[in-house]
Specification:
Layout: E1 6-9, E2 18-21, E3 24-32, E4 35-43, E5 64-69, H1 99-130, H2 156-163, H3 174-181, E6 185-192, E7 196-203, E8 206-213, H4 218-228, E9 241-248, E10 253-260, H5 267-273, H6 278-296, E11 307-309, E12 318-320, E13 326-328, E14 335-338, E15 343-345, H7 360-363, H8 372-392, H9 417-426, H10 441-453, H11 464-477
Antiparallel strand pairs: 1-2, 3-4, 3-5, 6-7, 7-8, 8-10, 9-10, 11-14, 12-13, 14-15
Helix pairs in contact: 6-8, 6-11, 8-10, 10-11
Organism: Scleropages formosus
Main location: membrane
Pfam families: Activin_recp, PK_Tyr_Ser-Thr, TGF_beta_GS
Length: 482
């Protein structure tokens, strides 16, 4: 177990006014939307970059005054936002300059420019070593800290691109998240679940999705926000996280999780409304595999990413973007693998996955909970069921079937674990793959992938990367424009 020695005051911590860290205590006063905001919190050692002059500890004249310190509760200081130096003050035009001042005025900016260039080259090189795919847009934090002033012409996409923490892709700084969340105007309910409601909201003219958890689901809210802010998680096929906030309206506490808004809704909704072409089927299937592959992948290094397994993959937890590709959502049940200690970080909540999509080893309780690959294999089984839902709605040759959930013909609408176990484990049944799919190469490949996702032995199933490669080859054959 890692030990943290430093205790700090915290204005951003849920249910407590202090936090512990292995890095530094930070106090900052900033001007956001013309308002003075005071923040006291902890930052971890890996956020103290670059060494000697961490970005998080820099101030910006007239906008931000930041103080980092390294003793218990040292961030109790009260900081003022420094005023901008006026002409005639200090070294302004009206002052008499001696040789020392002249050297300082000339050499200072030159030194600062050189320092910024060196930092910029270092960040550029470091960033490109870490990015494994040209598709990812991971924002590099601006060393000047000017970004902490939320300019009125900034859109959410601009903010996320500019402010992804130190290029790590783990999301916006905490105080920016709170500012964004508290200026969202809710518009309409677009979904309900066991956790609460999903709303469409507006922020600066753009649409966002706001998942509002009931107060009894605090653990789920905290867990999902925690997973979404995992370093290097941002990916075009994983739902874009924007902010998490707890809002006290005087009667009860609302727990908000703000993310990108996708007007098509879930894959379940989309397939109920529309059939898909062969090209549409391949785009949905390939993008879902890409998102799951990135989730499962471990990226090594100091700014690396742990492997993550979803544990509740289904068509209702996958969103369809405007361009017809998928974004995997709802990470509240996800588990992370810490390879350094070979431990699995499992959420401390009582929820289980969706019974209809549970793998055989989950249903009969033979899954090895100490082996991370077991969770990835269970995700692959569920992905195979999602592919079956998509392929059924493919209108190849003007033939397509009505939408149905997996095992619709074998179990009731809300099956018990026992009913699912009997069908999946004892009778070893799987959804029907029609013979006519053999007449179309794309459907034949999809059918083959499904069967290889449904093996009773989890270790024999395909990996997300293997599925992605197979579907990438198919997309080239079918001339699909992703």
């Amino acid at each position: 177990m890692r030990r943290y020695a430093l205790r700090c005051n915290c204005t951003e911590c849920l249910g407590t006014d202090q936090c512990v860290t292995d890095g530094a205590c930070i106090a900052s006063t900033s001007v956001i939307e013309g308002q003075e905001r005071h923040v006291r919190t902890c930052i971890t050692r890996d956020q103290l970059q670059p060494p000697g002059q961490p970005f998080y500890c820099l101030s910006a004249e007239g906008l931000l005054n930041t103080h980092c310190c390294y003793t218990d509760y040292c961030n109790s200081v009260n900081l003022k936002v420094p005023s901008v130096t006026k002409p005639g003050d200090g070294l302004g035009p009206g002052a008499k300059w001696g040789p020392v001042e002249l050297v300082a005025v000339i050499a200072g900016p030159v030194f600062l420019l050189c320092l910024l260039l060196i930092v910029g080259v270092f960040l550029f090189h470091h960033h490109h070593q870490r990015v494994y795919s040209h598709r990812q847009r991971l924002g590099v934090e601006d060393p000047s800290c000017d970004h902490l002033y939320l300019a009125k012409d900034k859109t959410l996409q601009d903010l996320i691109f500019d402010l992804s923490t130190s290029g790590s892709g783990s999301g916006l700084p905490l105080f920016v998240q709170r500012t964004v969340a508290r200026t969202i105007v809710l518009q309409e309910v677009i979904g309900k679940g066991r956790f609460g409601e999903v709303w469409r909201g507006k922020w600066r003219g753009g649409d966002v999705a706001v998942k509002i958890f009931s107060s009894r689901e605090e653990r789920s809210w905290f867990r999902e926000a925690e997973i979404y802010q995992t370093i290097m998680l941002r990916h075009e096929n994983i739902l874009g996280f924007i902010a998490a906030d707890n809002k006290d309206n005087g009667t009860w506490t609302q727990l908000w999780l703000v993310s990108d808004y996708h007007e098509h809704g879930s894959l379940f909704d989309y397939l109920n409304r529309y059939s898909v072409t062969i090209e549409g089927m391949i785009k949905l299937a390939l993008s879902a595999a890409s998102g799951l592959g990135h989730l499962h992948m471990e990226i090594l290094g100091t700014q690396g990413k742990p492997g993550i397994a979803h544990r509740d993959l289904k068509s209702k937890n996958i969103l369809v973007k405007k361009n017809g590709t998928c974004a995997i959502a709802d990470l509240g049940l996800a588990v992370r693998h810490e390879s350094a200690t070979d431990t699995i970080d499992i959420a401390p909540n009582q929820r289980v996955g969706t019974k209809r999509y549970m793998a055989p080893e989950v249903l009969d309780e033979t899954i090895n909970m100490k082996h991370f690959d077991s969770f990835k294999c269970a995700d692959i089984y569920a992905l195979g069921l999602v592919y079956w839902e998509i392929a059924r709605r493919c209108n190849a040759g003007v033939i397509h079937e009505e939408y149905q959930l997996p095992y619709y013909d074998l179990v009731p609408s809300d099956p018990s674990i026992e009913e699912m176990r009997k069908v999946v484990c004892e009778q070893k049944l799987r959804p029907n793959v029609p013979n006519w799919w053999q007449s179309y190469e794309a459907l034949r490949v999809m059918g083959k992938i499904m069967r290889e996702c449904w093996y009773a032995n989890g270790a024999a199933r395909l990996t997300a990367l293997r599925i992605k490669k197979t579907l990438s080859q198919l997309s080239v054959q079918e001339d699909v424009k992703m």
